[in-house]
């Protein structure tokens, strides 16, 4: 039975959203074995790099338009910015805050994109955008305050939140800068090449600063790193790009709004993180704000 393209696009976005939403949960599970952010990120990339290399080699066999001068360096730089710098800050932040709060903070990146575009293009921020920003940031602040109340180590919560906010800022910057490059070179080619550059950057970073010794971990960490690499990185990166190409970024953003809620419930189910009405209200505010901001 052949499904309509729109149905396939929706399925791609929903499955990709679930995989991305589970990322924080897998990372938190790995941290229980004593591993820290840098070696875990390095293991993730070590297990992911063969898949991206295979896609890159396959793309070489296709009749693709050669990259224009400078595009290769742009892809490398953008890959390092998002999947190296942003991911490292995200992994570091997850050492100190709940997976639910991390996902909510990351989810506000579309509002940061709007602010960056307004600043660079000198566009006036509309009333609708102001309301969207107020809703999204109020929701994030609500969940942040709730997390502070649930822990005695408020300084760690503040540190982790700051690191994830920085991660979100860098990812929003990546989205703004990549806006012209992705359509020009193609989503699959961009994803494969950018991820390869990020993988190399992360692995060199880990080996330079911490050496090979920190990559020796208990067997469960390797299993979780494989899950993180394949199910929470490779699969969703291509599924989301495919879904966006079929149904558009606007509908994809609306469907992807269930991501923070999935993370909250997975955190409660698997990590036994507390889930309260305040957190649900905060998630609703963030989702409402981002949906309003991305709706035409």
From TrEMBL:
Record flagged with keyword Transit peptide? no
- Supply the InterPro entries for this chain: AA-Vitamin_Transporters, EamA_dom, EmrE-like
Q: Which keywords accompany this UniProt record?
A: Cell membrane, Membrane, Transmembrane, Transmembrane helix
Q: Membrane topology per the record?
A: Multi-pass membrane protein
Residue intervals passing through the bilayer: 37-59, 104-120, 132-150, 156-178, 190-209, 221-240, 252-271, 277-294
Q: Does the keyword Transferase apply?
A: no
Q: Can you give the residue ranges of the EamA domain?
A: 8-144, 159-294
Top-level division of the source organism's lineage: Bacteria
Q: What is this protein called?
A: Drug/metabolite transporter (DMT)-like permease
> Where, per UniProt, does this protein localize?
Cell membrane
Q: Which Gene3D superfamilies match?
A: 1.10.3730.20
The major lineage groups are: Bacteria, Pseudomonadati, Pseudomonadota, Gammaproteobacteria, Cellvibrionales
């Amino acid at each position: 039975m052949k499904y309509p393209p729109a149905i396939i696009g929706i399925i791609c976005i929903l499955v990709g959203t679930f995989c991305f939403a589970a990322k924080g949960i897998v990372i938190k599970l790995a941290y229980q074995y004593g591993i820290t952010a840098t070696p875990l990120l390095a293991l993730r990339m070590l297990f992911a790099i063969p898949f991206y290399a295979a896609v890159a080699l396959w793309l070489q066999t296709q009749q693709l338009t050669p990259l224009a001068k400078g595009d290769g360096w742009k892809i490398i730089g953008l890959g390092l910015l998002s999947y190296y710098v942003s991911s490292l800050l995200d992994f570091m932040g997850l050492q100190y805050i709940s997976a639910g709060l991390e996902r909510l903070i990351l989810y506000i990146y579309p509002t940061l994109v709007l602010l960056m575009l307004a600043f660079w293009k000198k566009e006036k921020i509309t009333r609708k955008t102001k309301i969207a920003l107020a809703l999204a940031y109020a929701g994030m602040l609500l969940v942040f305050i709730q997390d502070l109340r649930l822990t005695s180590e408020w300084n760690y919560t503040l540190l982790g939140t700051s690191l994830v906010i920085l991660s979100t800022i860098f990812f929003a910057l990546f989205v703004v800068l990549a806006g012209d490059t992705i359509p020009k070179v193609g989503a699959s080619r961009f994803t494969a090449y950018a991820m390869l550059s990020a993988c190399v950057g992360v692995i060199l970073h880990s080996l330079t600063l911490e050496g090979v010794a920190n990559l020796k971990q208990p067997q469960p960490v390797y299993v979780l790193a494989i899950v993180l690499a394949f199910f929470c990185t490779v699969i969703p990166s291509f599924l989301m790009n495919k879904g966006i190409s079929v149904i558009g970024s606007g509908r994809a953003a609306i469907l992807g709004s269930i991501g923070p809620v999935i993370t909250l419930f997975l955190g409660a189910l698997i990590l036994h993180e507390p889930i309260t009405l305040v957190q649900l209200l905060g998630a609703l505010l963030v989702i409402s704000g981002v949906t309003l901001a991305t709706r035409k």
